[in-house]
Amino acid sequence: MAAAAAAAVGGPQPPQPELPAPGLALDKAATAAHLKAALSRPDNRAGAEELQALLERVLSAERPLTAAADGEEAAAAGGGGGPGAAEEEALEWCKCLLAGGGGYDEFCAAVRAYDPAALCGLVWTANFVAYRCRTCGISPCMSLCAECFHQGDHTGHDFNMFRSQAGGACDCGDSNVMRESGFCKRHQIKSSSNIPCVPKDLLMMSEFVLPRFIFCLIQYLREGYNEPADVPSEKDLNKVLQLLEPQISFLEDLTKMGGAMRSVLTQVLTNQQNYKDLTSGLGENACAKKSHEKYLIALKSSGLTYPEDKLVYGIQEPSAGTSTLAVQGFAGATGTLGQLDSSDEEDQDGSQGLGKRKRVKLSSGTKDQSIMDVLKHKSFLEELLFWTIKYEFPQKMVTFLLNMLPDQEYKVAFTKTFVQHYAFIMKTLKKSHESDTMSNRIVHISVQLFSNEELARQVTEECQLLDIMVTVLLYMMESCLIKSELQDEENSLHVVVNCGEALLKNNTYWPLVSDFINILSHQSVAKRFLEDHGLLVTWMNFVSFFQGMNLNKRELNEHVEFESQTYYAAFAAELEACAQPMWGLLSHCKVRETQEYTRNVVRYCLEALQDWFDAINFVDEPAPNQVTFHLPLHRYYAMFLSKAVKCQELDLDSVLPDQEMLMKLMIHPLQIQASLAEIHSNMWVRNGLQIKGQAMTYVQSHFCNSMIDPDIYLLQVCASRLDPDYFISSVFERFKVVDLLTMASQHQNTVLDAEHERSMLEGALTFLVILLSLRLHLGMSDDEILRAEMVAQLCMNDRTHSSLLDLIPENPNPKSGIIPGSYSFESVLSAVADFKAPVFEPGGSMQQGMYTPKAEVWDQEFDPVMVILRTVYRRDVQSAMDRYTAFLKQSGKFPGNPWPPYKKRTPLHPSYKGLMRLLHCKTLHIVLFTLLYKILMDHQNLSEHVLCMVLYLIELGLENSAEEESDEEDSVCGPERCHDSWFPGSNLVSNMRHFINYVRVRVPETAPEVKRDSPASTSSDSLSSLHNSGTAQVFSLVAERRKKFQEIINRSSSEANQVVRPKTSSKWSAPGSAPQLTTAILEIKESILSLLIKLHHKLSGKQNSYYPPWLDDIEILIQPEIPKYNHGDGITAVERILLKAALQSRMNKRIIEEICRKVTPPVPPKKVTAAEKKTLDKEERRQKARERQQKLLAEFASRQKSFMETAMDVDSPENDIPMEIATAEPQVSEAVYDCVICGQSGPSSEDRPTGLVVLLQASSVLGQCRDNIEPKKLPITEEEQIYPWDTCAAVHDVRLSLLQRYFKDSSCLLAVSIGWEGGVYVQTCGHTLHIDCHKSYMESLRNDQVLQGFSVDKGEFTCPLCRQFANSVLPCYPGSNVESNLWQRPTNKSIQDLIKEVEELQGRPGAFPVSISSETNLSKEMESVMKDIKNTTQKKYRDYSKTPGSPDNDFLFMYSVARTNLELELIHRGGNLCSGGASTAGKRSCLNQLFHVLALHMRLYSIDSEYNPWRKLTQLVEEMNSQRGNEEQQPEVPVLYHDVTSLLLIQILMMPQPLRKDHFTCIVKVLFTLLYTQAFVALSVKCNEEDRSAWKHTGALKKNACDAEKSYEVLLSFVISELSKGKLYHEEGTQECAMVSPVAWSPESMEKYLQDFCLPFLRITSLLQHHLFGEDLPSCQEEEEFSVLSSCLGLLPAFYQTEHPFISASCLDWPVPAFDIISQWCLEINSFTERHAEQGKALLIQESRWKLPHLLQLPENYNTIFQYYHRKTCSVCTKVPKDPAVCLVCGTFVCLKGLCCKQQSYCECVLHSQNCGAGTGIFLLINASVIIIIRGHRFCLWGSVYLDAHGEEDRDLRRGKPLYICKERYKVLEQQWISHTFDHINKRWGPHYNGL
């Protein structure tokens, strides 16, 4: 565009009205030359003054115009508001002056010669296609233009192509950003030595002219801007910019002249003196004064303090535009920002609370003044940038400023200027309406500046870049703060961002955050940040704004009215504004030397957390029913801790706070885990879907490592340091399942409904399992993590390469798109997965290349815990288990339903050893014991899943048990030692064997336990003693937790004065409404071991099923890793645990043996209460119902199957069934049809006809056949073009129009076939239905509102049985089958008699057969289907006659329909009939019925018997002169010009149906003679004179032999001699000789030629015979195809011997003497060639051998297509289309959806699909690599035929990896095109409303 604008300016100017133009131009050049000379003198003051005066005059000549243009009326005067004459004049002057009198273009060339371009620096805007190579890039933002990329060598690199979102610039040649090895050939560092020095006088004028020019531009900008009362309307700003377009373009062109000119520009832009002189020397110019005032007003609002605020910091706004606007307000004296925003109008409502908040401290007054201050400008560059910002970054200005960047000096100056204006930029952005466009343009600039580490460091040091950024971020967020409602709603002092604000919702902050992340990626900058305590404090303050945002409160009563979608904004904000900077900082804390940084961050993070806890008044209980997923402070803390331990070898305890703080820290992350379980238990269902959305986003792959992973890690750290009993009881309390953990069979849960208990319990146990087994931050190496993540994802589902990349969380190295170890990614992938190449089921869906886990991965690495952690949808866990089960079945490892396998963990890092104490604490053991007991006793609400987790925890405990077990063996005096507590110690191994006898429980009075105990208490024999000794265990988790909490609090001395914390919740006292609880005592007498053994019995359903394996095989204890225990169900798990317990201690082994010896009494049958019985019955009933349903379904399926089989057999009734019936019984039987709608069977009758379901579609596939084998390629350079001259359609068109020029129209229309383009193809699924049933079916579809992608109004429907797409019904002709026998029998009539009969039959008056001469339903249907057939194709493909609407036209159309269908079937068979057999469409063919319909209609048009070609074929006509008489009438088409296949169809369709076989054979024999003669004629025309005379001679000798009529030599010689009488051979040009190779013709080659010429006719005829008479086609070799077909058609005499070589001539059977009829035919030709020898010759040469149709051949690599077409201009509108597409049939380039090329409301693709494919178009969308199919009024996306190296499509080229053609897919596409099955195979169709 810039170039175009420049051309417009620099081109020849229209003559100005004031002065004669030529004189003026000379005048300018002369003046310029004169001035240049004057300035070159040593004393050039005079010249300078003269130049100044001239510039003053020229450049202010344009001033009045724009000044007036503010008023609308002047726009008209200035030539419609376009750039007026004055401006153009000024530009002309400038060009002349710069060139110093020479030509401007020569000047440009001269300057370019001095360009030392080592950098490319090409600037592009949004949507440009660029490249990024990760192998060569140093900075993640590196990008290359296509040219530099292709000229460099990036083979084997990790690169991709991308569409630029915000614009960018090419980094080729910049070694700060990329490695030099990747530079392209042009930018491989040129040494500056070989570039000559720039001669002084070349650019001398520029140095004088440009300052004035730029100042003039600035004046313009000042003037056009009105500091608005309201925001300036877009329109005004755009108007000014439009006027300035030529000026800015001029500057842009200057920058493109290369380095020499850029350095001049840099001088001009950065020279402070120039600026000062020009801007201060305003003099008396009123205009200039006015603009200067405007400038000052505009400057006023540039500080961060809003001038809109009436009283900023209590100082009245000064009236003058002084630059020290309100600085004194927070002048650095105090150093704090007072109340920065309490007076901001936006925050009026919340300001009371805000005032009290701890304020942002800015480290020193002096520094920040500059950030907040009003701007001062010292150079043109600064003011230009200022206006660029004011005008909201116009694209042209941005491009100009960026084009200058290759100049190093400018780059530094510009970066500093940009930083100086940074606050102002963000302020403008916040107010902007077009914040999206503006954001993109800001980032377009900043990414070029900040990606360069050296530059970023320099600005950080010199211009306080970091302070500015952090301050501006704070400032931005402060405008949208609200009071936090977390915890203590009334008294909370905490403020959070409001996620509903536009700032967050529209992501307006991203340019800022993106720059911040960008500069933090440089180590030197990040170090400064981490060392600066003030900055860290400010930053933590910023992060705390996000802490607790988007709070969810659980709805308990009714569903929320409005589901807010703010959570998107909240998650995006935490990820971008908090997490990504955190990852950026973390990437610099990798080594031991950086410990100090971590300590700083952790310290300030803890301080901020402490402040936060204070602000929300947090004590020890979180407020119920609320959750926030956003705890960035917690996560910062966690991630820096993790890094400290993993990489910096810091001692964890040195950075951990005291116990009390840890207790507080764990509360909120734990709350989130509990809430996740609640959400999955549907307890939050009244909050709507969005809460599920949050739960999913929290664990989703892009967020999980910044959200759930740090949370779990923090909880692991807390758990490892806090008292384990306290932690465990907290967990169960948070999950609200404390009341469930009781031995009693009934209990009451005060905080949870019964239906949620089970899933919450599962949630709590799952959480504990994850907490205890996850090692992501506890000692796994990066590669192990990657492997675990990959295995988890692959186990859920097979994955494509790209989805794996997407699903595996990497440390999001911000903005990079760099996978930290892409090398290790590939190597891990190949280690764990196998690649499944994409397979193609024809008609199936397109599959992509997938990776699937290797067998050994399933065997050893499948980790259910990791899967649970990473699944977004719960169904994925099930999917992983199903796949695991399938693997075990397949490999024979385990037949049943396995349980999730237990996987060994990587060892813990020593710092976290404390975590394992959780497994060895009494509280957990009590819980496990209770749950085992409850499961054994079948209490309600417990599931297999619970058991599975319980066993998992026990196993974890055994795996991680302490070693000091041996000493406990001696002290067996367990029970005496501890009366009060359940277990003797805390070690699981010893606690497992500890027997618990009695337990005291609190139960509701209604519980069964109470009743059972009442007698016992009276007869207190055994119990009373127990009561006294108090052995019955009592346990309350809550009490336990309170006690521990109190201990911890008391321990922390700092809190000594507050010993008793107030209880914040009273929710544990049961509400009075519940039934009273009483205490009961249960007799238990079990240990964990005994419970496990009983469980084994229960699970296996057998008594004494457990037998200790070591009793048989002592080896087991020595090498315990037994593979048989790896996979299995609960039984296996129990056995594995018991074995491990026995291994760990001899005592356990002994006790297990003892327990097994006592024959265990059967588990007592439960007493079933009535209520329980009810539920059990219900369950049983349900089960039975389910079984019944399964049975019914199975039965139904088998029925349907047999029905489908029979239905498929009845497909084409006349051909198959009747044959067998007829031979069996001679009585009359009719074809029987099944109606798929009403299900009745019966014949088709005239009153109630039956029809075939058919799809009619216009097709131009035949027209695409070509005559040479070389496939056509898609053009990929300008030279390659595709010309459609050699296609079948084109050849036939030319032939028909030639005939029509010279012969009678009606005769022409019988001589050829049409339908090569736009022919109607009829196909059927083979199902039949009554036509009246069909009509009612269509009615019901019409009333059905759900439109299924087809249009009922156009008659479209789907077959009611097989759902295949269809649009018409073809009536079946009623016929009894006895006739079929009669007309199959051969008769022995002579050929002459048959010819007579044929003629008579054809001569009968054409009408429907007598029986249906009256209008019957059948005849009506026949007519309506004929109408459908006609309407299927466009008028232009039907009407070829010169007289519109002539009957000949319909006649031609009808027999051509038959031709089209036969030819297409031939193509579907591969172009020949060698395979034989029934048709490939087998029973699905509808040609028989179609022939009936066509024949009935053709007989309505009788051919006048005089003109019937049959006569000319079979009789000698005497008087030839009658035609010669009337010259003015055009002659008929000579017989030899007729297309024989067309004649065949005409003859057959003119006969009354059904046709007799011998008549058919007779017609074929007669036509064969004509065809054979045509072969000779064509040959004689093609060859040269010598050959002709030789043949003439040899043939003449044999003429009198007995079989002369069947000898090709004789016939050929006769043909030649006959035609020599005319002028056909006379004007023999030399060019004709080339047509046939001059090789001598041998009899063999002659025979081959003749056979090839006749074969197409024989094939079509055989197909026709097959369809009409139901005879199978014989199969044969290709060589013998001719002889087999000719004998099958009855052309060969029966007694023909096959010994000697086959001679085609022996098939001839001349109806009249051969030589007579041939000479009669030749005579017609001669009489035509008298006048038109050339055309006569052309018409005789027929191309008979068409090759099969193919789509264009595509190049191997997609890039070749893309690079050529994506910038190609459209030939119609000459623009580069937004969505370019190319037709794969003919290679035409079209604009998809382009309004530019719309014609009569049809867009170009739709139009092309009608012209090229008669309604079917196949287009490749260049920008998406996808193929789109247009079929009629519908379209569908077909998929892509280009796949990447991993077998995946890349729709829309999002990944931009290299794509390669997938030949199989392309074949499938071509196959669907040729077989016309797009409608059946592709399912997702939609209407295109002509808009494609």
What does this protein look like?
The protein is an alpha+beta fold. The chain has 75 helices and 28 strands. It has a six-stranded antiparallel beta sheet. Helix 2 (21-40) packs antiparallel against helix 3 (45-61), helix 28 runs antiparallel to helix 29 and helix 30 packs across helix 34 (754-773). The longest helix is centred in the middle third of the chain and has 40 residues, at 1170-1209. It starts with a helix and ends in a 5-residue tail after the last strand. The N terminus is likely disordered.
Protein traits:
1892 residues, alpha+beta, three-stranded antiparallel sheet
Summarize the structure.
The chain is 50% helix and 6% strand.
Break the fold down into its secondary structure elements and pairings.
Elements: H1 2-10, H2 21-40, H3 45-61, H4 63-69, H5 72-77, H6 85-99, H7 104-112, E1 123-124, E2 129-133, E3 144-145, H8 146-151, E4 159-163, E5 168-169, H9 204-224, H10 234-255, H11 259-270, H12 272-280, H13 286-300, H14 351-355, H15 365-372, H16 380-390, H17 395-403, H18 408-420, H19 422-431, H20 435-450, H21 453-463, H22 465-478, E6 481-483, E7 495-497, H23 502-505, H24 510-520, H25 523-531, H26 533-544, E8 552-553, H27 566-586, H28 595-615, E9 626-627, H29 632-647, H30 659-680, H31 689-699, H32 708-721, H33 724-734, H34 754-773, H35 782-796, H36 801-807, H37 822-832, E10 833-836, E11 850-853, H38 855-861, H39 864-870, H40 874-891, H41 922-936, H42 944-959, H43 974-977, H44 988-991, E12 996-1004, H45 1008-1018, H46 1023-1029, H47 1037-1051, E13 1077-1086, H48 1088-1100, H49 1115-1118, H50 1130-1144, H51 1146-1157, H52 1170-1209, H53 1213-1224, E14 1233-1234, E15 1241-1242, E16 1250-1259, H54 1288-1302, H55 1305-1311, E17 1319-1330, H56 1331-1343, E18 1357-1358, E19 1365-1366, E20 1368-1371, H57 1378-1382, H58 1391-1403, H59 1417-1432, H60 1447-1468, ...
Antiparallel strand pairs: 1-5, 2-3, 2-4, 6-7, 8-9, 10-11, 12-13, 14-15, 16-17, 16-20, 18-19, 21-22, 21-23, 23-24, 24-25, 25-28, 26-27
Helix pairs in contact: 1-10, 2-3, 2-6, 3-9, 6-7, 6-9, 9-10, 9-11, 9-13, 9-16, 10-17, 19-20, 19-22, 20-24, 22-26, 24-27, 26-28, 27-29, 28-29, 29-32, 30-32, 30-34, 33-47, 34-42, 35-37, 35-39, 41-42, 41-48, 42-50, 48-50, 50-51, 58-65, 59-61, 60-61, 60-64, 60-68, 64-65, 65-67, 65-68, 66-67, ...
